C-alpha cells in the first residue's frame, strides 16, 4: 500500500534531518535514501531503532548492474515498518572490488539476501558469516545476472547415466544465429512484386 503524498513528504523530511549524510528523494511512491558504502550500517540501524519509524523488517536486498559506470552495482535495501505501516528504500553504489559491510547482524534475513547478491552479481559483503554461492552450483563460473554474462552461459549441465553423476560440457549451439524480422502475424510480410503485376489496373 502506497503512502499518501503528505505522509511521504513528512517521512522524507524527517529522514533527511536525521541522516544528513544521506540523499533523500521520493520516487515511485516510496522514500529513497542514497548513502555512501561506509554509511550503510549506521543508516539501517537508525532507521530500525528510531521510534518514529521502526523499520524492523528487511524485505529484500538486491543488486542492480550498470556496467557502463565505474561503480557498476547498486545494492538496494527494502525496509518495512509493520508498526507504522510504512516502507523505505535505501541504496548505495559499489564496484567489483569494494566490499559492502554486511548487515546480517542487524537483520538476520540479510544473510541469504547478501549471499544471493554475491552469487548473482559478484557483490562482496565484508563481515558476512558465510558468504558463498546460494543458487548456482559449487563449480559455477561467473555471475549470471551481470549484464555482460552470456545468455547461453559457459557450460551446460546434464546427468550422465553411465557415469552416474552430473557432468559439465562446454556450451555448443546447434545452429547459427538467425536474423528474425519480428513481423506481427496480423500485419504479414511486405508484398513482393510478381511478374505481371505491372499489367494490373491501378485504382
Report the CATH C-level class.
Alpha Beta
Strand content: 25-35%
Structural class: alpha/beta
* Average pLDDT rating: 88
CATH superfamily: NADH:ubiquinone oxidoreductase Nqo5 subunit
The CATH topology annotation reads as Beta Polymerase, domain 2
What can you tell me about this protein's structure?
18% of the residues lie in helices and 26% in strands. It has helices at 5-18, 40-49, 110-121; strands spanning 23-27, 30-34, 57-65, 73-81, 86-94, 100-101, 125-126, 155-160, 165-170. It is α/β, with parallel strands linked by helices. The chain has a single domain, classed as NADH:ubiquinone oxidoreductase Nqo5 subunit (Beta Polymerase, domain 2, 2-Layer Sandwich). The chain is flat and about 85 Å long. The strands form three sheets. The protein has a five-stranded mixed beta sheet with strand order 1-2-5-4-3. The chain has three helices and nine strands; from the N terminus they run H-E-E-H-E-E-E-E-H-E-E-E.
Topology, please?
Elements: H1 5-18, E1 23-27, E2 30-34, H2 40-49, E3 57-65, E4 73-81, E5 86-94, E6 100-101, H3 110-121, E7 125-126, E8 155-160, E9 165-170
Amino acid at each position: 500500500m502506497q503512502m499518501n503524498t503528505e505522509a511521504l513528504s513528512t517521512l522524507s523530511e524527517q529522514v533527511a534531518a536525521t541522516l544528513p549524510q544521506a540523499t533523500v528523494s521520493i520516487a515511485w511512491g516510496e522514500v529513497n535514501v542514497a548513502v555512501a558504502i561506509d554509511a550503510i550500517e549506521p543508516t539501517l540501524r537508525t532507521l530500525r531503532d528510531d521510534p518514529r519509524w521502526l523499520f524492523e523488517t528487511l524485505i529484500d536486498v538486491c543488486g542492480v548492474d550498470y556496467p557502463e559506470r565505474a561503480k557498476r552495482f547498486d545494492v538496494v535495501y527494502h525496509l518495512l515498518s509493520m508498526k507504522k505501516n510504512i516502507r523505505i528504500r535505501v541504496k548505495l553504489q559499489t564496484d567489483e572490488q569494494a566490499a559492502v559491510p554486511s548487515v546480517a547482524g542487524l537483520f538476520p534475513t540479510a544473510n541469504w539476501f547478501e549471499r544471493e547478491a554475491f552469487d548473482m552479481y559478484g557483490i562482496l559483503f565484508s563481515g558476512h558469516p558465510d558468504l558463498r554461492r546460494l543458487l548456482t552450483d559449487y563449480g559455477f563460473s561467473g555471475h549470471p545476472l551481470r549484464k555482460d554474462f552470456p545468455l547461453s552461459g559457459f557450460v551446460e549441465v546434464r546427468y550422465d547415466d553411465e557415469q552416474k553423476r552430473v557432468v559439465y560440457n562446454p556450451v555448443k549451439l546447434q545452429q547459427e544465429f538467425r536474423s528474425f524480422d519480428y513481423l506481427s502475424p496480423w500485419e504479414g510480410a511486405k508484398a513482393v512484386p510478381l511478374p505481371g503485376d505491372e499489367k494490373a489496373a491501378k485504382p
